[in-house]
Amino acid sequence: MSELHKFLFDGLPVRGMLVRLTDAWREVLSRREPGQEYPPELRDMLGEMSAAAVLMQANIKFNGALVLQVMGDGPVKLAVAEAQPDLAFRATAKCIGAVEPGATLEAMVNLRGQGRCAITLDPKDKFPGQQPYQGVVPLHGDQREPLQKMSEVLEHYMLQSEQLDTKLVLAANGDIAAGLLIQRLPVEGEGNLEGRSGAGPSQAAERPLGGQPALPAWGQRSSNEDDIGLSDAFNRISILAATLTAEELLTLDADTVLRRLFWEETVTRFEPQAPCFACTCSRERVGQMLRGLGREEADSVLAERGEIEIGCDFCGRHYRFDAVDVGALFAPGGAQARPDGSLQ
Question: pTM for the whole thing?
Answer without folding.
Answer: 0.81
